[in-house]
Amino acid sequence: MLLRYLALLGVHFVLNxxxxxxxxxxxxxxxxxxxxNLSQSVRQFNVLSARPVSTxxxxxxxxxxxxxxxxxxxxxxxxxxxxxxxxxxILARAGRPLPTIGFVAAGALALAFxxxxxxxxxxxxxxxxxSALPGLMALCALAAASIDPTRERNLALAAVALCVVGFFAKxxxxxxxxxxxxxxxxxxxxxxxxxxxxxxxxxxxxxxLFNRAVGSVFVSGTLAPTDPYFVDMTPRSIAMSLANMLLxxxxxxxxxxxxxxAAAVATARKRHAxxxxxxxxxxxxxxxxxxxxxxxxxxxxxxxxxxxxTALLCAALAAxxxxxxxxxx
Length: 329
Known about the structure:
Number of strands: 0
Order of helices and strands: HHHHHHHHHHHHHHHH
Number of helices: 16
Strand content: under 5%
Helix content: over 70%
Largest sheet: none
């Protein structure tokens, strides 16, 4: 696992620093959020803050200093890609690693996403990362529990524990984790998985209620239609927000199209293996669910939010290509 991570880290360095002469590994504050986040203090942290986990993570990074914070930001974004690849391997390939060339190619495709540059420089995305890392680990744990009867209970409990961290960092991974657990519950039809799904739904509800109680603008929304966090939950607005995040970028559009087509073909090949087909079909849906939290904010649907969903689609694309072509591994 370490070697695979280091390989992705090398790809990231080449693509986003060596080939971009104006880019630097250790950056400096640019956005207003950068200055705000890097001025936070652990001593001033209040557990009754909106999204307390990510708020605390920001304070810790500020304490470590800007240079360390930017390095950790880059290490974290590569970890997100790594976890997307591993999750797809576990869920759609029963844990079998992708062949090296496919693994590296999928990682390179994800790390070449144009808006990844924001993830290398923008400290405001620490909130997303502190949600994505435990969220992706929870997805990996759920998928591993579904194929390992000897550790099923412990892995399922670990997934719920990881979601406590992830959900209270940001709400991005609530729907993907619940959807994944629901699919596995549908497959297993056991009391354990019913409890897991119910626990995740209850945890998500508790997260929303907590954030609303502490006055989080991310949950309560704002009144003026021009405000950044104005909430519009009409189907048309949500569809347009999703399109802005996932389809407006031409690169992402190509990845989305290729992944959906590959998933459809792979699903058709698995039509006689219903469980495998449903797992493959779930992958593009999870990418959309990752954007659901931001989709209700029409004024805040930025392209960089699609980085992790695009990384998942790149991983899904690689898995589906090997499924269709025949896996040499």
